[in-house]
Amino acid sequence: MNISILGTGAYGIALSLMFHKNGNKVKMWTKFEEEKNTILKTRMNERVLPKIKIPKDIEISCDFKEVVTSADIIVIAVPAAFVDDVSFELSKYYNDSQYVVIASKGIERDSCLFVADIFRRHVKTKKYAVISGPSFAVDIVTNCPIGLSLASEHKTTRTVVKKALESDSIKLRETRDVIGVEICGSIKNVIAIAAGMLDGMGYPESTQAMFITESLHDIKELISKLGGDRKTILSFAGFGDLLLTATSKKSRNFSYGYMLGAKKSKKEIDEYVSNTTIEGLYTIQSIYKLLKNRKVNIPIINLIHDIIEGTQDVSVLPEFLIVKK
């Protein structure tokens, strides 16, 4: 099949290699001419995936139309903040024979829409799926066993995507619960920031385990309040991704939280933020606003928001875990 990957970041590259591994013809799109030229020259994106070579028969282009027009499956793998622009551009060329896979995670800041809703605002189709699960890009490209949730209400889409992507190193579990998978994929980045705070303050694994367990209950409640299936919390996208992101120093969200908990200097934190995509930092503003609009009370989200905004000190977090009902 012909696969188009929109985005040449770590996750986009990882997915391109997995589709390529299965014998698919892969094209990748980047908005940035300099990035395209660097990848074509070195066959790597050294900034996000050092030492990982991109096969020569994977095409790299800045020509959006050329990349997507011939695709059977189009994968959106850009940061959440850019999904609106990419979806708008895609709407000009999309045809109803194509399937779309959304690998981006997050909530739009102004509208409080999840990524799939942002996509559907521009592209009118039922042939889309969301993938999410515990999967650092570096682990995918080294062919470690990886599990992902594949969510779509369109059965044929799930079948086509599963056939193109599943392999001896990737397992896809199907579900119809798109909103539940999106909530899990978005909120885990926020929870990972708080987990990093606890680690930065020097709290042990016992406290981390308590926090993750409490967070599972909160996320399950959130899924239910927003119309998803509570059971999704036990999926790859739910518990699986939360466990990975909230316990690993390879997680950018966890690392950011660690810096807050360890009281790193403002200069050091600002430098990290300016040079790193921290999806949880983008998402916390959106989920906080969404919950206020829907009159849904999830206290841990309020506290993380307030700590990041500087209206609460990070030291309040461990005390909150004990008094929280």
**Average pLDDT figure:** 94
Level of helix content? 40-55%
| Major β-sheet annotation | 8 strands, mixed
Kindly state the number of beta strands.
8
| Unreliable sequence segments | none
Distance from N terminus to C terminus (CA atoms, Å) equals: 51 Å
- Rg on CA atoms, Å: 19 Å
The CATH topology of the largest domain is given as Rossmann fold
Write the H/E string, N to C: EHEHEHEHEHEHEHEHHHHHHHH
Question: What percent strand?
Answer: 5-15%
The order of strands across the largest sheet is: 3-2-1-4-5-6-7-8
Q: What structural category arises from helix and sheet content?
A: alpha/beta
Named CATH architecture of the largest domain: 3-Layer(aba) Sandwich
Explain how this protein is built.
This protein has 325 residues and is of the alpha/beta class. It folds into two domains: 175 residues, Rossmann fold; 145 residues, N-(1-d-carboxylethyl)-l-norvaline Dehydrogenase, domain 2, CATH 1.10.1040.10. The protein has 15 helices and eight strands. The radius of gyration is 19 Å and the shape is globular.
